[in-house]
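ARCHIVE CARD
Drawer: 12
Card no.: 0347
Subject: one protein chain, sequence and derived structure
Cross-reference: see card 0346
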Amino acid sequence: MRSSVVRYTNRLSDPPPAGTCVLLSIPDGAIADAADEIAGLGEPGPGCTALHLSGSQPASVLASLADRGYATGSLHPLQTVADPDQGAERLRDAFFAFEGDDRAREAASNLVTAAAGQMLEVHASDKARYHAACVFASNYVVTCAGVATQLLAETANIGEEEAARALRPLWHGAIANLDALGPARALTGPVARGDLGTVTAHLATLDGRTRDLYAELALQALELSVKAGLDEGVAERIEKEIRRLRTGGGERR
C-alpha cells in the first residue's frame, strides 16, 4: 500500500485520499450495497484501490467503485478466523487468493507481503469452486469433528466436552500427518486398510444423515486409498458394498 496509515471504520464519510486501499471485510450479501454507498461519496483520490475479502464473490461485485475510478479486486485469506482477537496473527504466513484487475493486483500483493504470506490467483469463473475447496478444508473438518464428538459422547456415556477432550489427540494427530505426508499417505482407518467388514459394521450401526455422511466420505476415502496403493479390486468390492448399504443409493458425486 502506498499509504502507511491504517484506519478501521464502519463507514467512510468522505472519498478516500490518493493511494488509499479500502478493504471491505463484511458479509458477502452486504458487499454490493457497501460499494454503492462508498461510490456515492464521490470520486476518490488518484491511485485508490478497493478490495473485498470474500472467497466466493467476484471482484465485479465492486462495479460501482470501478466506475468511480477505483482499482478493484478480491483478496481472500485461506485461513479460519473464529476469534477476532487472534485473527490478525493467524493471517501471518497464510496464502491469499486474488481476483481482480491489474491495478488492484499491486495493492493486494503489498498486503500479502506485509502479512508474510503468498498470493494465489483465481479466475472469477472459478470462485465458487475455489471457495468450496476452502469450506471442505475448514468448515467441514469442524463439522466432522462435531459429529465424532456427539457419537463418542453417546456411546461412551460422557458429556460432549469430555468427548471432545478425548478426541483432541486424534484430530491433532490427523492434522500433523496431513502436514507431514499429504492427504493420500496421511489417511488411516478401515477404508485405507481395505477392511470391508469394519466399514460394513459402521454403516449398519449408523442411521439417517450420519450414515449418508459416512458413506459419502468413505467413497472419497476410497479414491485417496487407491492413490496410496490400495488394491483396486478390494476398493471395488468396498465401493459396491457401500452403495448397497447407504441410505438412498445414487451415483457418486
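Annotation on reverse: Residues 3 and 123 are 28 Å apart (CA to CA). The chain is about 55% helix and 10% strand.
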